[in-house]
TrEMBL record:
<dbReference type="InterPro" id="IPR012318">
    <property type="entry name" value="HTH_CRP"/>
</dbReference>
<dbReference type="InterPro" id="IPR036390">
    <property type="entry name" value="WH_DNA-bd_sf"/>
</dbReference>
<dbReference type="InterPro" id="IPR014710">
    <property type="entry name" value="RmlC-like_jellyroll"/>
</dbReference>
<protein>
    <submittedName>
        <fullName>Crp/Fnr family transcriptional regulator</fullName>
    </submittedName>
</protein>
<feature type="domain" description="HTH crp-type">
    <location>
        <begin position="69"/>
        <end position="132"/>
    </location>
</feature>
<dbReference type="GO" id="GO:0003677">
    <property type="term" value="F:DNA binding"/>
</dbReference>
<dbReference type="Pfam" id="PF13545">
    <property type="entry name" value="HTH_Crp_2"/>
</dbReference>
<dbReference type="GO" id="GO:0006355">
    <property type="term" value="P:regulation of DNA-templated transcription"/>
</dbReference>
Amino acid sequence: MVIDKATAIAGDSHLFTWTVLADAVVRNLPREVFGELLQTEASVALQAARHLATQANQARADYLTAATDSAQRRVLQRLRSLSDRSGTVRLPDGQAGLADELGLTRVTVSRALHQLIDDRQISMRGRTIRLS
């Protein structure tokens, strides 16, 4: 939804793909209607601005992490953010998907995962990872 809000505000068009890991509801609002609501409803404009600011802050934090943290720390941080309440992470696209998401090679992710296993921070069975 973030891309849609930013794109609608910028007036650009785009193609997109969503990967949903849980049940989701997708709603469609024509750009013109959204633009009108932004101009006439202060609460809509405020919510959109807050949402975009949150996304910008997260993008900045992700950039700083990518620029300063080791691959192992980045992998562990991402696994923590993806884990459910029981500390379990299912990687639908496997190590290659995690590597693409983090801007690392699959080999680097594999090494980081094996080091995390050796350090007993995670256990792994197939595409399922459990945080310790």
